[in-house]
Amino acid sequence: MSSTSQHRLNIDNINPHVKAAHYAVRGELAVRSEEYRARLAKHDSSLPFKEVVSANIGNPQQLDQKPITFFRQVLSLLENPLLLEHEDVLVNQMGYKPDVIERAKWHLAKVGNVGAYSASNGSPAIRQSIAEFLERRDGYPARFQDIYMSAGASSGVNTLLHVICAGPSSGVLVPIPQYPLYTASLSLLNAQCVPYYLEEHKNWATDLDALRESLKEARANDVDVRCIVVINPGNPTGASLSEDDVEAVIELAREEKLVIIADEVYQTNVFVGKFHSFKSALRRMQEKNPGKYDNVELASLHSISKGMVGECGHRGGYFELVGFDPEVQQQIYKFVSIMLCAPVIGQCLVELMVNPPKPGEPSYELYEKEYNGIYNGLQERAVALHKAFDEMEGVECAEPQGSMYLFPTITLSEKAVAAAAEEGRPADEFYCLKMLEATGVCVVPGSGFGQKPNTLHFRTTFLAPGTEWVGSIIKFHKEFMDKYR
Is 361 a member of any domain? Predict the structure, then answer.
């Protein structure tokens, strides 16, 4: 036991892979921001700001994004079915539309009590509804048997990586910068993260040469590279992949026998161009070249946490498997069975997301108004924040294309870098900490996502309402740059 602890568990004897894992979006800066929030709640007037803005994490409803009325009304009836005994009150006094009541009755008939476990891979009726959504989205059939419900996309990633990674030599190609779920999960599994750098000067496009070089180097070091992760639209970059990029990754996966994990949770958050799903691209390639791509293994993920839904706390998501060996798929089913099932109310919310009110239905007008209002608000704030970065000395930022984030480059003086070193911090972390202390705005240093050597970035969401906090960043940045000239 450690000489500094009398506990059975201490920092020296717990699982070393847990200690090795890092998850920057809820790291030191986030903890510090919550301390400030608590002080403000106690009317502490010594801080130089009046509120904390949590721009560090894609948590829309924490930042005042309103829930979609149709979704929450249906959920309220699923949680308390006794309300259905008073349909006249619901409609005439509480503003519930008839299609809300009908959808709730459908769920109760198909799913049953939301307080009971569902099938381990999710309610068959909900998975069938998702399959129909995928067919509408992609133009190709989907099978409900290949769809697995999960507690958000993160749970799906955890399932897939547990099955893919067989030991310390197993490797997974991960885009850099990346959402730290992937590197943290690989650390926990004692598997190898094989980084491949995205091209910042090309709006964070996928660099096939860099991909091949990373793959070659890893294999030369006896890493058994089994999988490639693609986040589209990107987190933290906000990039939206072109159809050519998607097809190039599929071709690489075919040549090199790599499983594709397509993290597509931001598929509705696209401001420039359009979203290209990996499933639709793969099916088109299979049509054009019969037999050539039949063995490509694709797992694509979606979630209720992002987009215009933003229901992070309800923990709902799914992944679809394409081209997997049936025996492997049985093991994936066994793995999700160990966790019993995804939250059933979250499963229901996934069904509402993929099958929202249609034109002509009573709830459609309000749904469309709320959905478009959220989308337009996100785009307007993205453009405003991007414009602010354009005005800031030493800051460069790609045009916002999608997701909920911007990932600007910052160029800091040698004096600022030296000041950071004195505190034992990376320069981008030092900058973000000073921003938090001066403005109450919490962002995440680029080092938490990975970045090319000798570059500095930070990631910010554009979820927070209003523009006052953007002005405070501009003011802070000018004062910081002046101080460290």
Answer: no
Give the span between the Cα atoms of 82 and 245, in whole angstroms. Answer: 51
Confidence (pTM): 0.88
CB 473, CB 434: distance < 8 Å: no
Q: Are 237 and 405 in contact (CB under 8 A)?
A: yes
DSSP, collapsed to helix, strand or coil, labels residue 383 as helix
pLDDT in tens, 345-399: 999 999 999 999 999 999 999 999 999 998 888 888 888 888 888 888 988 888 8
Q: Are residues 162 and 311 in the same domain?
A: yes
> Residue 227: enclosing H or E segment and its boundaries?
strand 224-231
- Answer yes or no: is 2 within a domain: no
- What DSSP string describes 19-55? HH---GGGSHHHHHHHHHHHHHHTT---SS-S--EET
Tokens of 67: 């829930």
Q: Give residue 456's domain range.
A: 16-64+370-483
Identify the CA nearest to 308 among candidates 259, 371, 354, 373: 371
Q: What is the pLDDT of residues 33-61, one digit of tens each?
A: 889 989 999 998 899 988 888 888 777 76
Q: Rounded to whole angstroms, how far apart are CA atoms 35 and 339?
A: 34
Query: By C-alpha distance, which of 58, 104, 103, 42 is closest to 79?
Result: 104
Beta bridge partners of 442: 54
pLDDT, tens only, 90-141: 999 888 999 999 999 999 999 989 888 888 899 999 999 999 999 999 999 9
Give DSSP secondary structure letters for 240-292.
---HHHHHHHHHHHHHHT-EEEEE-TTTT-B-SS----HHHHHHHHHHHSTTT
d(CA 403, CA 400): 8
Q: Cα–Cα distance between 64 and 67 in angstroms, integer? A: 9
Do 177 and 195 belong to one domain? yes
Q: Is 323 exposed, middle or buried (0-12, 13-18, 19+ CB in 10 A)?
A: middle
pLDDT in tens, 134-186: 999 999 999 999 999 999 888 899 999 999 999 899 999 999 887 778 888 89
